[in-house]
Known about the structure:
By secondary structure, the protein is an alpha/beta fold. 47% of the residues lie in helices and 13% in strands. It folds into 2 domains: 202 residues, Class I glutamine amidotransferase (GATase) domain (Rossmann fold, 3-Layer(aba) Sandwich); 110 residues, Arc Repressor Mutant, subunit A (Orthogonal Bundle). It is built from 15 helices and 11 strands.
Amino acid sequence: MKHVSILVxxxxxxxxxxxxxxxxxxxNQFLAAGGREPLFDVQLVGLRKEVKLEGSIYSVHxxxxxxxxxxxxxxxxxxxxxxxxxxxxxxxxxIPWIIDQHKKGAEVASLCIGAFLxxxxxxxxxxxxxxxWSRFNEFRVMFPDVEIVDGSIITEEKxxxxxxGANSYWNLLIYLVEKYTDRATAILAAKYFAVExxxxxxxxxxxxxxxxxxxxxxxxxxxxxxxxxxxxxxTVDQLAEHFAIGRRSFExxxxxxxxxxxxxxxxxxxxxxxxRSFETSRKNINEVMFDVGYTDTKTxxxxxxxxxxxxxxxxxxxxxxxxxxxxxx
Length: 329
């Protein structure tokens, strides 16, 4: 029997508590229906017997208090909401318990923004982690010793797991089901919950907004310039000269401030504009390519797929049904 402890922190997202409980309970039913013994003993664990969430709209009644649980096999840290610094302060009592359980052999998995509480334990230092794409920059600032993996749905390092944003946590939950049972059971669970099994990237869902939480005024001006003039042709040398900064110093400051090289930043801005065009217009691939400043089809397609995980045609077909119906090519 695998003991699964789903934490119930303050400010937790209710779905990220209810969904894993439902999934593991359903898998027990699948196993029983196939003549096998149920595998998962699932319990909600918290600091209090009753935890009110989302402005007291919901009340979650825990099965056990943290202090009463001596050992578990798998800890699920659900997504959190609101201000992360405040959320971590409210849930600080979970941190030593998670560390202690991990020392005793428990595996730990964070769902979406639950990665912030996970990273606070120090267990992820020097390791890879994923979270919701909208919180990447904030996560990097708060946890510089953790390697945030852009676009990843699942990370796994020696029994430490994390998932990407929002509903991406279903992929991690199905992954864990397969690890603890078998592929057939995981496929059954994926079909039952209508989850696209083995999806490994949240890149197609990401919206790029440049990192602006830094204090380098000249680099912010450079960001503004790039975002306003992305369709024009200019080199890094020309950009550095425009702001009267030596190229090497400009590139170093830009990377430090935005966590992107100048070229990467420009590519992301261009691809974000291309994505919006594919979503809302009936322009064909070449028209969008020219609009964002590319003339080489292969280069455009390669960079677009690198950033979004999809080809331009796949992206347009996924997000713009009107263009597909109109027969745009």
